[in-house]
Every structure is written in C-alpha cells, then in structure tokens.
Fold this sequence. Notes:
Layout: E1 6-10, H1 11-14, E2 15-18, E3 21-22, H2 24-27, E4 32-35, E5 39-42, H3 43-46, E6 59-62, E7 67-69, E8 79-81, E9 88-91, E10 95-99, H4 105-112, H5 115-124, H6 137-141, E11 144-148, H7 150-186
Antiparallel strand pairs: 1-11, 2-10, 3-6, 4-5, 6-9, 7-8, 7-10
Helix pairs in contact: 4-7
Amino acid sequence: MKPKVWEQRKLGDVFEQTSNLVNPKEDEIELWSLTVEDGLTKKSDRYNREFLVKKDDNFKEVRPGDIVYNPMNMTLGAVGYNGMAKSVAVSGYYTTMVAKENYDTYYINTWLKSPQAIRLYRTYATGSLIEKQRVQFPTLSIIPVTFPKYEEQIKIGSYFHSIDNLITLHQRQTDFYKKISFYYISS
C-alpha cells in the first residue's frame, strides 16, 4: 500500500488566530492596508488617511510571518503575508493569524490565494447577500482542506518564493527601463 502523502485538515488545525492590538502613533508602527491585488500595502502608497487615525482606534499588529485577511473580501482573495522583518499595523477589522508548527507559512500563504481556496471561501461564507458575504475566523476554521506533508510544503513554498522573487526582479527592471526611456524621450 502506498503511503498517504497529502492529509486532510480543517483550517483551524493549521492556523491560530492572533489579536495583538496596537496604536500606530504611540507604538510608532506604520499603518498598512490589505488589497486583493497586492496583499499588504503601505497606506501612504495608496492614499493618505493618517488624519483618520484617532487616539483610541484599535489596530492589529501584523508581525513578521503573520497572515492577515479581510473577512469581507476573503471570497475575492484579500489575503496578505508579512514577509518583512518589521511589524505593521492594520485595521482592527482584519483577521490576523499565524500558521501552526509543521506548516510552511509561505506555502500556506500561496495556497490561501489560490482559485481552489477562493472557491472554498465562497462555499463557506456567511451572509445573505453575495456582496456582503464574509469569512470570519470561526468559519475559516471549519473549512476542510488537503495539504502535503511539511517537507513537501517547504519545497513547494520555496519554489513559489523563488518565482515571486523573479517576478519582483523583472518588475523592477521594467520600471527602470520605463524611467530611462522617459528620460530619453523627455530630453
């Protein structure tokens, strides 16, 4: 008999919800947002809303290695991973979580944005109107998924990480060549 390589788990077995509340101004932590397109995004890169930050607002800290998602946009793939060496602050409405031991965070983060995962979120989302459906952590926790063993997750996660780095490099090169061509056209 062939050994079982992939195992079924509920996402509640994979993740632990975190809720580290911070005040961005007092704790000197940058305020970030979450987009479907780019994941975690620096707030000032999108629009300046610093004036909306009130002293008593609750924001969540997203520590290095944490995963964050927007419950209202989970069915669209609004998931981010903090791959930076610093913590950032996000809306207190977002859900923050960390992968438990023996789960590769980079593999898991990539899977969370996959078409297969998004179909599952849509199946389990709560709310009567499609545009108002959400996936809170208790709902996410009951979703059954099949994952490879940890060693294979690491290999797959590493592969995706390499691809992401290559895409980033090519994007920087493209941006650089656009600037150069603009300079020569303008001169």
